[in-house]
Amino acid sequence: MGPVTGVRSSLVRRLTSRSARATWQLGRRLGAALQPGDVVALVGDLGAGKTQLVRGACAGAGVDEGDVSSPTFAIVQTYRGRLPFHHADLYRLADLDELYATGFMDLVGGDGALVVEWADKVSGWAPAERLEIRLEEVAGHLDSRRIALTGTGSRHAALAEVLAANTGARPGRRRVPRRVPEKKP
Ligand SMILES: Nc1ncnc2c1ncn2[C@@H]1O[C@H](COP(=O)(O)OP(=O)(O)O)[C@@H](O)[C@H]1O
Ligand SMILES: [Mg+2]
């Protein structure tokens, strides 16, 4: 996955999910907002909650949740919902050549929404304009996940904004800059 850089501006929103259910609900909100051509790159270790989020997204996009599984053997699966919902998992891929061979690249920015687990496993596939969702565990809090949403380009920035607004998950703690005492002249 290429770095999020360039002239397109990115919007970053952070929040903390306190339960698997809250992550599912965040996913559902994402699924309800998805439009054809959207690209969602999920990044996070095993057990971070990527699939949990995808399950919610499927529900939000009108996909029968019974259809959803981890694309263990297939790199990508397409579910039928309100729009075609392509669910990919790049965990087992070695490189970009291998990814091209699967036909995955035809789905990028295509007729459906593309949601990719282990998006950082292979670099070079992702369009600059995408929504990147990073999930990470929180030491000492089994059911908490820190979630960072980075939307690049106006469409995906809007998605990040919508998702971070009035979510069931509480907003992440903001870093308040320490006030530096003014020096007397
Ligand atoms: N806040 C949370 N968000 C997501 N999953 C959570 C959370 N708290 C606990 N979990 C648990 O963590 C696991 C996440 O698994 P999964 O979604 O398959 O991860 P991944 O696809 O990233 O490997 C599930 O067992 C889920 O119940
Ligand atoms: Mg998974």
- Report the helical percentage: 10-25%
Mean pLDDT: 88
Distance between the termini: 51 Å
Q: Whole-number radius of gyration? A: 17 Å
Distinct small molecules = adenosine-5'-diphosphate, magnesium ion
Instruction: Assign the structural class, choosing from mainly alpha, mainly beta, alpha/beta, alpha+beta, or little secondary structure.
Output: alpha/beta
| CATH-assigned fold name | Rossmann fold
Numbering strands along the chain, what is their spatial order in the largest sheet?
3-4-5-2-6-7-1-8
Explain the overall architecture.
This protein is α/β, with parallel strands linked by helices. It has a single domain, classed as Rossmann fold. The chain is 23% helix and 28% strand. It has four helices and eight strands. It has an eight-stranded mixed beta sheet with strand order 3-4-5-2-6-7-1-8. Strand 3 and strand 4 form a beta hairpin. Helix 1 packs across helix 2. The radius of gyration is 17 Å and the shape is globular. About 3% of the residues have low confidence. The site of adenosine-5'-diphosphate (ADP) has 17 residues, from helix 1, helix 2 and strand 7. Adenosine-5'-diphosphate binds next to helix 1, helix 2 and strand 7.
For this entry, give a set of tags:
185 residues; alpha/beta; Rossmann fold; 8-stranded mixed beta sheet; 23% helix; binds adenosine-5'-diphosphate; binds magnesium ion
